[in-house]
C-alpha cells in the first residue's frame, strides 16, 4: 500500500494580506470625494509605516522558530522561511501594486443601480454600519470605565498563565493506515507452537472489516519467542473507523489467544529515534549491577502497568528463559589432564556446525557436518552420552564424570545502552491521555516505588524528543515576545507603546488554550505553531489602532482620548476584514476531517478560538490600556524633569 507523507505545516494559513488594509483605506478616501489616483496615493502613504511595522514585527515572531532546535526546528524551519518571504512580498505588493490597481480599477457604485448585487451590497453595508454604531457606543462606555477594562486585562493575563497548564503533547496521533505489533510468547516456546499462535493472531486480524491485509513473521529478535505483525488498513474513504478504533477493537479479540500477547501501535509518519519497541514510547532503565537492574525493571514494569494513563506496558527484559549450565569439576579434569578447551571442542562436535569434509561431484560440492542425531539434541540428556579423550591415558572419559548440569533461569540477552546494561519499558497512551500527564505520572510512580539512585532512568525516542520540546516551549514564547517588543520599540522609538500592543496577546492566549482544552486537545507542537501565527495576526490589529492614534496626536493635535477613539472607529472596518479573512481561512482546519486531519485540527482550533476571543476583548481593552500607558509615560517624563531641575538647583 502506498502511503504519502503529509507535511504538518503544509495546510497552515498564512496571515491576512496587507492589501485588505490598503484597499479599505483607499476606498474610504474615495467615498469622501477624493479623486481615485490621489486617494490611492494618499491611502498608501498613510499606511506605509503601519505596514512596515506589521511586516517587520510579524517576521520577528518567526525568528524563534528559525532558531528552534530538535525535531520541531527541522520540521518548521522551512515553513517559517516561506511565511516570512510571503510576508515581505505581501508588504511590497500592498505598497506598490495594490495602490496602482486601486487608482485604475476602483469605481464607486452607481446609486441608481437596482440590481440584485447592488441590493445585497446595500443590505450588507447597512448591517455593518449598525454594528459599527454599536461598537462606537460600547467604546464610549468602556472609555468611561477604565478600571473595569484594566481589571479585565489583568484577568486575561492571569487566565493565560493558568491555562498554560493544559496537558502537553508532542505530535497528535495521526491515522497512517498502518498498525504495527510485537508478539511475545514464553521464552521456551517451540518454533512450531509459536508458528501456530502467530497464525491464530493473523486469522483474527484478517477477519476485521477494516483490514486490507496483514503480514506476520516470527523471530529472530533474538529468539523465536517474539514475532512481528504489520496490519495494512483499507483506504480512509473505504472504512468507517479510524486506526485507533480498529486497534482498540482488535485488542479484546487477540487477548483470547492463550500463551501469547500482542502489543500494537499505529505507525506515525513522524518517528523519532531508531529504537524498535513494542509500543510507541520508551522508558529506559540502566544499572551497572545487572541483578539489581532485573529486579527493579520487573518492579517498575508491574507498577507502570497499573497506571490508568498507560496501556500496552511491556518490557524487553526476557529474564525467564530456562538455561542449563555445565559446571566443570576442575580437580577431576586436572587428574585426567583434560583441558576446558577439549570439553568445548567435544560439545561443538556434538551440537555445533563443525565441517569435517567436503564431497565433490560433477556439478556441486557438499559440506560434511559432524553432529549427533538431531533427536538427541532436544534435551540435556544427550550430555550423559558424550565422552572426552584423556591425553594422559588415551581413554574416553564420560562427560558426566567431568562436569555436572545446573538448571536455572537467565535472560536470553542483555541489552546495553552506552556502556551499561539496560531494560526498556515500552508503553502507549490510554485514550484521551496526553504524553505530558503520562511522563509526570511515571516520575511519581518511580518515586513511590523507592527507586535506588544507582538505577538511572531516561525517556527515549518520541518521549525524549517531547521532553526537549516541552522544556523549550516557554522559552520559545518568551523569545517571540521579547523580539517583538524590541522591534516595536525600535520602530516607535518608545518603550511604552510596544507594551500596549503586546497587551492584546493574553486575550489571544485565552482564546487559543481554552478551546483546545474544551475540544480534548493537548498543547502539541502543532498547537504551538498555531499560537505563534495567532500572535502575529492579533498584533497586526493592535498596530493599526495604535499607529493611527499616534499620528492623530502628533499631526492633528488631538488629545490621547480623542485620538484613540477616532483610531478605533476608523480602523474597525479593516480590523474586522483582516480578522474575518484569517478566521475563515483557519475554519476548514478546525473542522477538518479525513486523512491527516489530526495534524491540522490543533492549529485551526487555536487560531479560530484566539481570533474570536481576542477580537471581542482587544477592541475594548486596547484603547483603555493605551490611555493608561500614555498617562504613565507622561508621569515618568514629569518625574524625570523634576529630578533634572532639582539636580540643577543643587549644583547651582
Automatic annotation (TrEMBL):
Q: Which UniProt keywords apply?
A: Membrane, Transmembrane, Transmembrane helix
Whether Transcription counts among this entry's keywords is no
InterPro entries membership: AcrB_DN_DC_subdom (IPR027463), Acrflvin-R (IPR001036)
Question: Where do transmembrane segments lie in this chain?
Answer: 47-67, 79-106, 475-492, 512-538, 575-593, 605-629
Q: Which one Pfam family would you cite for this protein?
A: ACR_tran
Could you tell me which PANTHER family the record lists for this protein?
MULTIDRUG RESISTANCE PROTEIN MDTB, PTHR32063
Q: By what name is this protein known?
A: Efflux RND transporter permease subunit
- What organism does the record attribute this protein to? Paraburkholderia dipogonis
